[in-house]
Each structure stands twice: as C-alpha cells, then as structure tokens.
Amino acid sequence: MPPLPIARASRLPDTRTDTVLKIYGQARSRAFRVLWLCKESNIPFEHDPVSVNVPNAKAKEDWYLKLNPNARVPTIDDDGFVMWESAAINLYLARKYKSPLWPSTPQGEGRMLQWAFFIANDIEQAMVGLLQQRVALPADKRNAALEAEYDAKVQDRLKVLEDHLAANRFFGGDRWDMADFMVASVVFTFTGMKYDLSKWPKLEAWLKASAERPAAQEAIKLRG
To answer: Of 57, 124, 163, 209, which has the fewest Cβ atoms less than 10 A away?
Structure first.
C-alpha cells in the first residue's frame, strides 16, 4: 500500500510583534504536545524546559507550584493567563490563535472533542501504565501481570482507531485537522516506546504520516 500523503496545514502569517506565550515543561514530556501545536499553528512562544520526575525537579519548586499546584508539566502563561493540562491547553490555544487545524463547523468541533476525550480516557491511561512497566520503571519494580493488563487494554482501544481509519482517511473529516492532532499528539508516545503497531497497519501509516509533517519534525527536534 502506498504511503499516505502528508496533509500540510497552511501557515498563517505571524502578526504578533512580541512573544507573550510561555510554555513550561521539558520537551520529552506532555509539553511536547503543546510545542507541536504551536508549530502547527505558527504561534510564537518562549519555552522554559521545566524538569519533572527527576531529583530536584523544577516542577516541585515553590515558584512553579504557584503556577501548577500538581507539580506536573506542561503549564502555560499566555500573557498572564495561566493554565495546565495539555489537552485543555491545546484546545484553548488552537481556538484563541485561530489555528488552521481548527474545524470550520460545529460538527467538526464535536468530532474533535469526541476523539480528544476518547484518547484521554480510553487510551492514554493504559498507554502510560504500559510505558511505566516497559520503560520507565527499573526492572526489579516491574510487574509482568500488570504490564499484560495494560497491553490488553491498549490493544483493544487501538482497534477502535484502526477500524475508523479503515473507513476514513482522517479522524476529523476530509483533512488532517485538530481531531487528528489530538489523537496524534498522544499516540506519538508509542513511537518512543518502539511499540509494535504492525497489527494496526492503517493506524501505523497514519501516525507515520502525522509525525512526518513539517511542524511535527520541528517539535521533535526540540526533544533533542
């Protein structure tokens, strides 16, 4: 099967003369999703790679806890408006700054929210659990039974994505839009895990094309 063509979002001219959006969080974290959205949407930003889950993490310092009491990343400060939770941040930024990814109809917005909630509730939790058991935790702290449980949940939910792509080219409609971004920004984690997606060839091809978008490549470079 020939590879899916890469749908490219049109670039908006940068009409801002100063940078007021600040993104907190190391690029190898959920902050990557916000960085990617800004690249897709041509939103200028400053990036403070606040560390998390390491000794003496900046996310646990008093100044940061005043921004995000959860001691997690990402957090944004958009000209004084402080917000956390990556999915909410991206929906807010895309709408406020008129991202070319934003759907043009109420139905498109509904579809975007459907996939955003599905990916957060049904896939991300199991995916993160699997990541911990396979990658993050030391070998002596891993639980094979728990890993198998998380993997079974992941596989069951990935079938939903595969079945959709078997009948549709994109998640949002006739183009790669914000619905696709909300899915791709989360399932991109499977790439770093080297998770075998060969059982879901439509999803595998779609994710590869998504990660090859110019904006995605720019954000990936920030991960180092």
So the answer is: 163
